[in-house]
Design a protein that fits this description.
Blueprint (H helix, E strand, L loop, with lengths): L5 E2 L1 H9 L8 E5 L13 H7 L4 H6 L3 H7 L11 H4 E2 L7 E2 L2 H11 L6 E5 L3 H4 L1 H12 L5 E4 L2 H7 L20 H7 L3 H7 L5 H4 L4 E4 L3 H5 L16 E2 L32 E4 L3 H11 L4 H18 L4 H16 L6
Parallel strand pairs: 1-6, 2-5, 5-6, 7-8, 7-9
Antiparallel strand pairs: 3-4
Helix pairs in contact: 8-14, 15-16
Length: 336
């Protein structure tokens, strides 16, 4: 079945009514996360010794996010928790497991190869925050058939759709992660150093975009992250969270209405995202497919100002024409 990257709750409701979910190669996963767990980093040495990769033991422990899920969720959706899908390392709260370990968790959830996974969560950013992170993880491990529910569980409730409190358990799946794909999406700082040889870090920014996607408070050091205070990579640009440019109720706006301010990006493939929100930003890029919008917008703004000055043409007219052109061009630049 072919589904868009971003689907509305009405589409999901129809899939449930037609008895397609969990039966015709389509699964829906609840990625709800209790944000009170932010900053509560377990002792990484103890975790590595007692729980690393032992998903049966991890799932047997009390889980605030699971309680949130059991308070109400979309019918037929099992729960997937980012605390289980990742592990606390020495420096990371949510470090990605090696592919062969992560796939064991997905198999326990009930995921099979080549299935289309529909993900959702609840809370901030129109309920998109945590499902976007999980979607990016799955994409990094090689799963391509992914969709997010626009507005998440809050939108589902708002529209009056059926709510379940069952603890959905599916039979174990046979999904397999792709190691080559994982190594393509996750890189270490040491790899960047090797790639750039003897050049100093500050010189990397001549051919590499480093985008810091943390919230402004963390970027400026005024908000606690649960880790020792750290600085900001020199010449890195803070990438504004795209959800702040969404509609009043938190859902995503059409891609034509999203513009990136302050970041000139030549190619997304040459861009490194820094910070805990980077997976959300990356998923926004994957879903909305606005690859070169920022480049064209900056160019058209320059052109239209020149036209308005030199030809005495109204600036608003020039803006409309140039923006239309740049958006028609970006419509061809989709990310696969």
């Amino acid at each position: 079945m072919s589904l868009k990257r971003l689907i509305d709750v009405g589409t999901v409701s129809q899939l449930l009514k037609k008895n397609i979910i969990n039966k015709e190669g389509v699964r829906i996963l609840d990625c709800s996360y209790d944000e009170s767990q932010y900053g509560k980093k377990p002792d990484y040495k103890q975790f590595e010794k007692e729980l690393y990769g032992k998903f049966d033991r991890i799932l047997a422990q009390p889980c605030p996010s699971k309680r949130l899920y059991l308070s109400g969720h979309i019918p037929q959706a099992p729960h997937v928790c980012i605390d289980v899908a990742t592990y606390p390392s020495q420096y990371e709260r949510y470090a990605p497991y090696p592919p062969d370990v992560f796939q064991e968790y997905m198999r326990l959830v009930g995921v099979d190869p080549d299935e289309h996974l529909i993900l959702y969560s609840r809370g901030k950013f129109g309920g998109m925050k945590h499902c976007s992170k999980m979607a990016w993880l799955l994409k990094a491990y090689g799963h391509e058939k992914l969709s997010l529910i626009d507005g998440g569980f809050d939108e589902w409730k708002k529209k009056g759709h059926e709510i379940s409190k069952d603890d959905v358990k599916l039979k174990p799946g046979s999904w397999t992660a792709k190691a080559d794909n994982f190594n393509k999406y996750f890189i270490k700082f040491e790899q960047l150093e090797e790639q750039h040889g003897d050049r100093r870090y500050i010189e990397w920014t001549d051919d590499l975009n480093l985008l810091d996607s943390r919230v402004r408070g963390q970027f400026e050091g005024t908000v606690d992250t649960g880790f020792p205070p750290s600085g900001v990579p020199p010449r890195s640009a803070r990438f504004k969270t795209l959800a702040r440019r969404g509609s009043a109720d938190g859902r995503w706006v059409p891609e034509a209405n999203i513009f990136w301010n302050g970041c000139k990006i030549a190619k997304v493939t040459e861009t490194s995202f820094v910070g805990g929100s980077c997976v959300y930003v990356c998923m926004c890029v994957c879903v909305c497919a606005c690859v070169y919008v920022c480049v064209y917008v900056y160019a058209c703004m320059y052109v239209c100002v020149c036209l308005s000055v030199c030809l005495s043409v109204r600036l608003s007219v020039c803006l409309s024409v140039c923006l239309s052109v740049c958006l028609s061009v970006t419509s061809k630049d989709f990310i696969a």
